[in-house]
Write a structure and sequence with these properties.
By secondary structure, this protein is mainly α. Among the domains are: 16-136 and 138-174, Neurolysin, domain 3 (Orthogonal Bundle), CATH 1.10.1370.40; 212-276, no CATH class; 386-568, Neurolysin, domain 3, CATH 1.10.1370.40. Helices cover 55% and strands 6% of the residues. The protein contains 28 helices and nine strands. The protein has helices spanning 16-26, 54-76, 84-92, 96-111, 115-136, 139-149, 159-174, 181-211, 227-239, 252-261, 265-276, 288-304, 310-315, 323-354, 366-378, 382-385, 391-406, 492-509, 529-539, 542-548, 560-568, 574-592, 602-612, 629-632, 642-660, 665-676, 684-692, 699-704, and strands at 214-216, 246-248, 409-412, 424-429, 435-442, 454-459, 462-464, 467-469, 472-476. It has a five-stranded mixed sheet with strand order 3-4-5-9-6. Strands 1-2 form a two-stranded antiparallel ribbon. A hairpin with a 5-residue loop joins strand 4 (424-429) and strand 5. It is globular, with a radius of gyration of 25 Å.
């Protein structure tokens, strides 16, 4: 999942002298032939990647900032009384150049980063931080926003308009507009520092991921691995100039199969420790001091804005509202997950003992013995399933469900420019044939691409000057690479991930909102995972599998006996899966509920946090601190719990489809009308109850994970 959901808001108010300084800082000639300076001259407004060069980004960012200065200067100096139209909507619609360049640059930075892109990001990041501060610390602009906000007697406004006004008013307040001048100056410094620290955290993580290789030169050390994994490792070695050897990397499609199948325990330990020590090797890419600075600066900022912790500050604008509610949910799930994980650990230890092992189960053993136990208990071998999950077939399965639920269709586009040759593009149309938008799919790992999976947009949906602006959405993954003799064949986890990100994609594609600031995924962090996670429920439903799970060689539909095995094993290893997820969410909360600035020993802090909740030594958090990009280089600080909060919603929401039929069109249209199309136009629980008729029942989460009958 996910996911980079954070876009730079297209709003600005810099004094003109600041722009001249900015240009001098980055020494940019303001060329005229820059594709970002005007709306993209392509049939559907897609980015002309064949024309975009790295040297275009910096001048476009500066021009975008200048443009917004002019636009916001007009808002501030408007002699007419402040209104929704001349102030709030004008602000929401400002900055189309900055919108364009930000969207493309952020996409490229995640998907094919290199040293030049990193350098541009480092130069632009403080300018964008200052740019944002100059918007939200602009007192004259706020005075107009506040005037519109205080006009509560105006009853002609729609719910969406009221929400837009409220959102901008709160953003100004939460950005420090009511602080004194000394505090504002310090806040500007903090924001600049945080932007660069987060950037450095991510750069270090990417370097640590790319720089490591486990080189195998003895064929005996490949014992247990499938031929497909061996072939991919051989190809990786050839690309690295190591012909005749095999290379395994810290990309998940490489290290996870090794952990699952390699018989050599010492090498499993070596590769796994390399994975979880990223950013913690006391070298130039170490992230421990960066974490210290980020945590302390976030706390200082929260205190300055009147909150006792960063978590209190963040959670004010979520469904959870405060850390106490978050921890109540996490603790409730933990009470079920940890005992189950302990039972699973005991089962794995028994298997080790039966095989004559003289060692205690460790975290690098878990995947290996889990696969063995899965085969023993359910006669289910994931390698037996993978031939039925060719990536294009799985993609078509996601398309099939969308068509059944909403009537939408997907047509390949071969004449659209892409930033990498293996990126696929589709035109999305509605049931009546009307045009919805464009979807890019970027599914394979490459050097410079960050790990994980996410969704974002090259253009958000909105209505501007009476014109419906169609969205341009992208999904990114790091799935199994095709080899010389086989296409990309996905694991069950990767199948679920593809459906998950596609659910986010639908949230962006099916948006039908008037205003940029409320469009698509611009919703509370603990609500945004509902569209993605509910979509996972269809991935392995028998009726759906029969439509897309076909053997890549024979075209045979997946046999019923394999589907039955999958169903029986559905909640296998759920204690582990839930425990590592909850542990990471609690670690996030531990970091961000700190109320005193201090010098943290990152490893000691993390160990203490996990010991306090009784995490068993055989399991580590899904993300250890030094590579926890969600919270230190993303939008999920104090928010990693969101996946579980949203699961309460998605497990309950899917019951509507269970009750009415998993392809029931009226239920699908209700979900589209009340959730997918509405963005952040109303409070999340209001939207949810419009769909479901009631608040969600948490019991379905526990049932979904097999903790209760």
């Amino acid at each position: 999942m996910t996911r980079k959901f954070v876009c730079i808001l297209a709003l600005a108010s810099l004094v003109y002298s600041g722009y001249a300084q900015d240009r001098q800082k980055i020494s940019i000639p303001m060329e005229t032939q820059n594709p970002f300076f005007e709306a993209f001259n392509t049939p559907k407004g897609t980015p002309p990647f064949e024309l975009i060069k790295n040297e275009h980004y910096k001048p476009a960012f500066v021009k975008g900032i200048e443009q917004q200065f002019s636009q916001i200067d007009q808002i501030v100096n408007n002699t007419a009384a402040p209104t929704l139209e001349n102030t709030v909507i004008a602000l929401d619609e400002s900055g189309d150049v900055l919108d364009r360049v930000s969207a493309v640059f952020n996409g490229i930075k995640g998907a094919k980063n290199d040293e030049e892109i990193q350098k541009i990001a480092e130069e632009i990041s403080p300018l964008l931080s200052e740019h944002r501060d100059n918007i939200y610390l602009n007192e004259k602009l706020f005075a107009r926003i506040e005037s519109v906000y205080n006009d509560s007697v105006n009853t002609n406004r729609t719910t969406e308009q009221k929400k837009l006004i409220e959102k901008y008013y709160k953003t100004f307040v939460r950005s420090g507009i009511k602080l004194n001048q000394a505090q504002k100056d310090r806040l500007r410094e903090i924001n600049k520092e945080l932007s660069l620290l987060s950037l450095t955290f991510g750069k270090n993580l990417l370097a640590e991921t790319n720089n490591y290789q486990l080189v195998v030169d003895n064929p005996k050390d490949l014992s247990g691995l499938t031929q497909a994994e061996i072939n991919l490792a051989a190809e990786a070695a050839r690309k690295s100039g190591l012909q005749g050897k095999w290379v395994f990397t810290l990309s998940k499609p490489s290290w996870l199969p090794f952990l699952q199948y390699a018989d050599n325990r010492d090498l499993r330990e070596k590769l796994y420790k390399a994975m979880y020590n990223r950013g913690n090797n006391n070298n130039q890419y170490d992230n421990k001091e960066i974490i210290n600075q980020i945590v302390n600066l976030r706390l200082e900022k929260a205190n300055m804005l009147g909150f006792k912790s960063h978590a209190d500050y963040v959670l004010e604008e979520t469904m959870a509202k405060n850390p106490e509610n978050v921890m109540a949910l996490l603790n409730r799930i933990w009470e079920y997950a940890l005992p189950q994980a302990k039972k699973e650990a005991a089962d794995l230890q028994q298997m080790i003992d039966r095989e004559g092992g003289s060692f205690k189960l460790q975290s690098w053993d878990w995947w290996y013995y889990t696969e063995k136990l899965r085969k023993e208990k359910y006669a289910l071998d994931e390698e037996e399933l993978r031939p039925y999950f060719m990536v294009d077939n799985v993609r078509d399965g996601a398309f099939f469900v969308a068509n059944k639920l909403f009537g939408i269709t997907f047509k390949p586009l071969t004449d659209v420019s892409v930033y990498e040759k293996d990126v696929q593009v589709f035109e999305v149309n509605d049931a009546d044939g009307s045009y919805i938008g464009v979807l890019y799919l970027d599914y394979f790992p490459r050097t410079g691409k960050r790990n994980g999976a996410w969704m974002s947009s090259f253009r958000k949906q909105r209505i501007q000057n009476g014109e419906f602006i169609h969205p341009i959405i992208y999904n990114v993954g790091n799935f199994a690479l095709p080899s010389e003799d086989k296409p990309s064949l996905l694991t069950l986890d990767q199948v679920e991930t593809l459906f998950h990100e596609f659910g986010h994609g639908l949230h962006g594609l099916l948006s039908s909102i008037n205003y940029n600031g409320l469009s698509g995924t611009a919703v509370a962090r603990d609500f945004v995972e509902l569209p993605s996670q509910i979509y996972e429920h269809w991935a392995f439903h028998p009726d759906v599998l029969k439509m897309y799970a076909k053997h890549y060689q024979t075209g045979e539909v997946i046999p019923d006996e394999l589907i039955v095995k999958m169903q029986k094993a559905e909640n296998f290893n759920q204690g582990f899966t839930t425990t590592e997820l909850v542990a990471a969410a609690i670690l996030d909360m531990k970091w961000h509920t700190q109320t005193q600035k201090q010098e943290f020993d990152v490893e000691e802090f993390e160990n203490n946090a996990m010991n306090q909740i009784g995490l068993i030594s055989e399991i580590i958090p899904r993300y250890k601190s030094t590579y926890f990009a969600h919270i230190f280089d993303g939008g999920y600080s104090s928010g990693y719990y969101s996946y579980l909060w949203s699961e309460v919603l998605d497990a309950d929401a899917f019951q509507a489809f269970v009750e009415n039929g998993i392809f029931d069109r009226s239920t699908g249209e209700s979900f589209r009308d009340n959730i997918l199309s509405r963005g952040g136009s109303e409070e999340p629980m209001t939207l949810y109850k419009k769909f479901r008729g009631q608040e969600p029942d948490p019991i379905y989460l526990l049932k979904n994970r097999g903790f209760v009958e």
